[in-house]
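FIELD: query
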Amino acid sequence: MIRTIGMIGVGNMGSAILRGIVDAGYVKASQLTVFDVSKRKLREIREDLPGILEARDCLEVAENSDLIILAVKPLYIQEVIDEIKPGLRGKSVLSIAAGWTVDMLEKALKDTGAAWLRVMPNTPALVGEGMTAICDDTTFSQEDFDFAKGIFDAVGKTRVLPERLFDGVIAISGSSPAYVYMMIEAMADAGVREGLPRTYAYEMAAQSVLGSALMVLSSGTHPAALKDAVCSPGGTTIEAVAELEKNGFRNAILEAMAACAKKSREMSR
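FIELD: result
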C-alpha cells in the first residue's frame, strides 16, 4: 500500500504535480519527500509546501518512499534509476518522462524488485486542470494503480490508454500547453496593437481560450459547429477565419503536432 510519495525532480512538471495534489487535499506535504539538483527549486517547493521533506540525494528519496515519481528530463532517467536501485525493493516507480517506453522501464528496473508505470501528464495540473494519460501496461498492483491514478485525477482529467497511442498523447496534451500559450501571446499582442492595455489584452485572450475550451467540453457540440455559430454572414469573425485559413493556421498545428509525435518516437529508440 502506498502511503508516502517521493519526487525526483521538482521542475515545472514535478512541482506542478506536488502543489496540485497537496492543494487538492489528496496527500499531506508531510507524506512527500523530494530531491532536485537545483537548490533554488528545492527552496521554492519548501516555501510553497511547508512540511515537505527534503532528501540528501535520489537514493534517500527511494528509501523513504513507497511510490517514487521520476520527474527528471528523459536523458537523466537511466542515471537516476542506477542511483536508486539499492532502495527499490518492493517499491513502485512512476515515470513521466517523454519517450521512455514500458520496455525501457522494464529493462532499466530489471531485478530491482520494483513495479513500474508510465504516465504522461501536463503542466495545467498546477491549477487543477491537467490532462494525463496513464499507460494500461503496468506491473503496479490494482490498489497501487488506483492510488497513482488518483494523484492525477486530483489535478485534472485522466485517461487510461495503450502505449501505442502515447506519441499522439504527447503531441495533443503533453506539449500542447506551449502552443496555447503562444496563441494567447499572439492574441494579446494583436490587442495591444489595437490599443488595449497589455494587462487587459492577456486577460481577455486567456479568458476567451478558457471559455471556448469549456464550451467544447460541456456542450458536446462539434468544434466546427461552435465556430460556425460565431461566424455571422459578412461579419468580422469570418474575416478573421479566412485570414487564418489563408495563412495555414490549421495546417501549422497539424504539422507541429506531427513533428512533436515524431520526436517522441525518436526518443523511444
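FIELD: remark
The chain has twelve helices and eight strands.
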